[in-house]
């Protein structure tokens, strides 16, 4: 089995593996009308940090989907420790196993870049109820990269495409999301913010290779810190 | 995760802030200052935030690296200022 970046996140059980972590997630959600009457699908739920937070904090009906069984197992362990129910489903974002008009909100925290973006967007559009919203945090390139650099980043992370902000908006519009609001946040590290520290829920046997992937990731994201950023997209039809 | 893996992880994140939960239910906050085969040594962080128990007084300060936590006692670990896509 090849050792990929996503395998590394799964095996080490990185919680909140997206820009801004759980802290940004909380900020984004606080701007939305979430309550007990709302149904939420989190695609690419990982270890389930966000889904657990939504279920506990807002009382929504939450469905958490991931294509990694390792991640889903860790998510299930987490959900078993909270007082709210979260449904878990194994599946692919490009072909989501739900009927049309199923959800009020779909949340994607650095997920679509790892999938066929256009397909995933149209799936999300299909699943959202009328008036529903797709909330995303996704990587963007701030300045064009050379073809070689772009390939290097895409290969390492397993991104299907590395888009600019405009590139995302274009694909979202093509996929049927006519209203797209975009927010830009800086990448800020609070060295001592342990309340929002990144959780590890590692598997029993972790190959050394995954620690090297972690190192390579830190090197790459630091090297390209001026070229790579992220945006928050709030999208509706 | 094994002692060996916590050893590797702590080594990789030397100098970074960490929150460690041990099997006895305690939570420790500090900067990783040293790791040996059996223990990780943290320099405690003072914080205005209400983060729970700091474990002061339970570990000696004679190590020169802050207080030591047996790697085998670690139940969970969280690291500050990590970034993922």
Automatic annotation (TrEMBL), chain A:
<dbReference type="InterPro" id="IPR029063">
    <property type="entry name" value="SAM-dependent_MTases_sf"/>
</dbReference>
<dbReference type="Pfam" id="PF08241">
    <property type="entry name" value="Methyltransf_11"/>
</dbReference>
<protein>
    <submittedName>
        <fullName>Methyltransferase</fullName>
    </submittedName>
</protein>
<dbReference type="GO" id="GO:0032259">
    <property type="term" value="P:methylation"/>
</dbReference>
<keyword id="KW-0808">Transferase</keyword>
<dbReference type="InterPro" id="IPR013216">
    <property type="entry name" value="Methyltransf_11"/>
</dbReference>
<comment type="pathway">
    <text>Lipid metabolism.</text>
</comment>
<feature type="domain" description="Methyltransferase type 11">
    <location>
        <begin position="41"/>
        <end position="135"/>
    </location>
</feature>
<keyword id="KW-0489">Methyltransferase</keyword>
<dbReference type="GO" id="GO:0008757">
    <property type="term" value="F:S-adenosylmethionine-dependent methyltransferase activity"/>
</dbReference>
<comment type="pathway">
    <text>Phospholipid metabolism.</text>
</comment>
UniProtKB/TrEMBL annotation, chain B:
<feature type="transmembrane region" description="Helical">
    <location>
        <begin position="61"/>
        <end position="84"/>
    </location>
</feature>
<keyword id="KW-0812">Transmembrane</keyword>
<protein>
    <submittedName>
        <fullName>Uncharacterized protein</fullName>
    </submittedName>
</protein>
<keyword id="KW-1133">Transmembrane helix</keyword>
<keyword id="KW-0472">Membrane</keyword>
